[in-house]
Amino acid sequence: MTLSLLGAHTRGWRAVALALLGCAATASGATVRAGAGRVDITPSGPIWMSGYATRNHPSESVGQHLWARALAIDTGSRGRLVIVSTDLIGLPFEVSDQVAARARQQFGIERSHLWLNSSHTHTGPVIWPNLASMFVLPPGEEQKLKDYAALLVDNLVAAIGKAVAELAPAEVSFAFGQAGFAMNRREATPTGVKIGVNRQGPGDHEVPVLKVAGQDGKVRAILFAYACHNTTLTGEFYQITGDYAGFAEAELESSYPGSTALFVELCGGDQNPYPRSTLELAVQHGHEMAAEVGRVMKGKMQPLLGRLRTAYQIASLPFAPQERATYEADLQNPKASPAAKQRAQRMLQAIDSGHPVRETPYPVQAIRFGSALTVLALAGEVVVDYDLRAKREYQREHQPEHQRGHQREHQRDHAGEPLIVAGYSNAVMSYIPSERVLREGGYEAVDSMVYYGQPGPFAPGVEERVFSAVHAVMKQVGR
Q1: Exposed e or buried b for every residue in 377-412, given b needs 16+ CB within 10 A?
Q2: Which of residues 247 and 18 earns the better pLDDT score?
Q3: Residue 423 has what DSSP assignment?
Q4: 397 pLDDT higher than 50
Q5: What does the domain layout of the chain look like in residue ranges?
Q6: Which of 1, 84, 221, 358 has the smallest number of CB atoms closer than 10 Å to its CB?
Q7: H helix runs in 214-311, sequence order
Q8: pLDDT attached to residue 76
Q9: Distance from CA of residue 377 to its chain's centroid?
Q10: Kind and range of the H or E element at 44?
Q11: What's the longest Cα–Cα distance across the chain?
């Protein structure tokens, strides 16, 4: 190229050079900023606890504080993501929609750039109206729960604000570990599937770990995840805690002073921690998790690089048709549970008002960092079949896999792009059974719908409807 031609294109080349410098800066991590914040969301007094229908009075004490934690990651060019984790049973639309609207209004965070997740602890408060049919509440208790839910919206927005305010240059990296205490709980019996122990059932023991370090190398935030119910502590416990996830978060924050540790619940709808039912075991599982996260962080981790791409779509999942007579029979049946009677009353009211419940909205979200890592965030209590199928379809390059019995453990060679599949994200409206689980029946497919106040099981085809939305959002982020 001649000198005169170079002079004629000085501005153009300057723009190209600046763009290339920007790409190089992003690739080196220099333009990545991150910030973390947390807000105490422990109830101020005794409150009705969620997760077990056998409970018959409010919480008795606080064994561990509950937190809403937020992590903001800004890759430049409007590529800002905020992840919010909560030590709670799950967020209903009534909470998550308000948080999303205020995050957009106050911080300019688009809906696809906000990922809300709950640990699903069963020793936290009821989040009204999530699982409202599970309990017959004494006078005054419902208002306490409504007040807590309203305050929770404020607290989640405040946590987001703290994370955004703390944005600063950072290095973000990720890797994967393993933890072995999760086990499939769908036990086959001569009378059907029950909640028990299924050592041969499908599961995923992978522990994704994301580390955020400042320019001085100090750990500022840790995100870790696992596919397992937070149900080490069973229905006889009336002490507020975050279960194993809460103990792991606390241990990590103690081990890395000044850091914020966020637990993300993956597709653990049919996975329980084993052994369980003592406080000591909850602490033990939490310690095992924290130790594995610490081990991973001390090893080789891959930089989280590249342009942020997100997609968010709301699918519709229809329920199987139900007859009015079914609900009327529940009201008349002296052996029907209080939850069944409450569900029946709500369904009949909906029918009489001309708005029968026939389907539920279902959010599906994809988040992709360049070609380094993709997160698929699914709503509801998602069973592990969704995790395994998504990885089969989108992560073939990470095979070979080996199996220990029927427990699938992924051995990553990082030759391609890994995938994290989360459940309990953005809203929890019910269990989300795979087609196999729906066909087999049992708690996740049928019985739990009473407690969630849903009309009944999903219609056949639920898995394909979910994956239709999965395919759509994955395509939008380039997978």
Answers
A1: bbbbbbbbbbbbbbbeebbeebeeeeeeeebbebeb
A2: 247
A3: -
A4: no
A5: 33-306+365-425, 320-357
A6: 1
A7: 243-255, 279-298
A8: 82
A9: 7
A10: none
A11: 94
